[in-house]
Amino acid sequence: MTRHVGDLSLEEAVTRIEGPLLFVRRTVEVGLNDAVEVIGVDGRVRLGRVAALDESFMTIETLESTSGLSMAGTRIRLIGEPITFSLGPGILGRVFDGVGRVADGGPPVAELVKAPIDGAIINPLRRAKPEDFIETGISAIDTLDSLVRGQKLPIFSAGGLPHNRLAVEIALHARLRATFRDGARAAEREVSEDSGTVGETAPFAIVFAGIGVPFDQAEAFRLALEEGGALGHTALFLNLASDSSAQRLLTPRFALTAAEYLAYHEGRHVLVIITDMTNYCEALREVSASHGEIPSRKGYPGYMYSDLATLYERAGRIHGRPGSVTQIPILTMPSDDITHPIPDLTGYITEGQITLDRKLDRAGIHPPIGVLPSLSRLMKDGIGAGFTHADHPALANQLYAAYARAMGARLLSSVVGAEGLTTTDRLFLEFGQGFERRFIAQPEGARTLEESMAIGWELLKILPVTELTRLSDEQIQRYLRSES
Questions:
Q1: What is the rounded distance in angstroms from the CA atom of residue 460 to the CA atom of residue 387?
Q2: Coil, strand or helix: which one is 442?
Q3: With b meaning 16 or more CB within 10 Å and e meaning fewer, what string describes 380-400?
Q4: Which of 203, 307, 382, 473 has the fewest beta carbons closer than 10 A?
Q5: How confident is the model at residue 20 (pLDDT cuts 50, 70, 90)?
Q6: Domain 6-82 is of which CATH architecture?
Q7: For 90-381, which CATH class?
Q8: Is 60 exceeded by the pLDDT of residue 434?
């Protein structure tokens, strides 16, 4: 058989239609994951791809509803290549559906590059080390679990927690701080609201993808970015809960393809925010079951780890190429279980996690970031002298240690009462309350790193100097005794 491109009549060739899948007798040479167009007797064109094949049959996965399709009279147009995304300079400021079609009523994006959505494998030798601090405007992230350009740092949430609100806040306020690595200073430049550029030399962009979101939430995302002035330097992808599960599997791939174009063709530093990866994994389980594949843990396919890796590993920097791709995937842990396969596998692939805490949320603290279980493994590569501030690492270490001690004091006070605590433990208890109410909580909106650090230094004044073992004498003198 020779590779076929064009229309293929499926008269008497379709053996079964099951959900989004068409099971077809194979009469031509096609490739796995080749794009197809399924055309019903009503003339409606549905995008699809070859999901499985053998010598005699092939399975076609449609990305839209198969309602109205019949086993007779259906045609397939074979594209002869994998699904691609047409990209061009006008992609920023636009809204797309889950499979890259313009959804804002505007004209199509003028094509400059046509890229396969599965991306290209990055040679490990060409990967550059992630570095440079990205400011999110969230104190608990910027100060204690800093995001670094080229990193993949997921947010572990749970049902009912405000992860969507946090995602929008990061999209509105994230910026790349220009740095001067002379070992002495880190200079900050403002982000242009119109072009999303940092200063004059470091263009910055956001790619925001909503997977399986209800219509009202999708509209809330669009309105928030538009009213906040961030839509101009954002490409927004919205896959609705009413869309097919097969579409859900492609949404992050379209979003990441757009991010790679912005990074490696336009030289931008791109922050990709994807919510909710749990919806993606549920769709992966559903489609895998429809294929008749043998399930693994909790019914998810055994290849879910490698499938997630094909998404997460598209973050990074490449030697000799402009720009970078940084990822913040957001997932909700089923039953608040961090050992569930979705957060468990995500944790293996990514470089840390930001964990949302239900107790903080119930206490009215926003964002409810649980500091102690959160971690950014690449934080050290983006902070300190020449990146943020020379005293940033020491402050972060001291705040973390003090808050951990405060949590121990809180636990002890629940047993013996506050009166049974030592004077030092009562001071740590006061520090912990202030840390949650003044540092983690920020209902007024975004903070700069300097504002976050100033609050941190102020809170440390509550504690005895003898307990500040992570700070140098010079730092204690400069920040904690300067007024005495």
A1: 23
A2: coil
A3: ebbbbbbbbbbbbbbbbebbb
A4: 473
A5: confident
A6: Beta Barrel (2.40)
A7: alpha beta
A8: yes
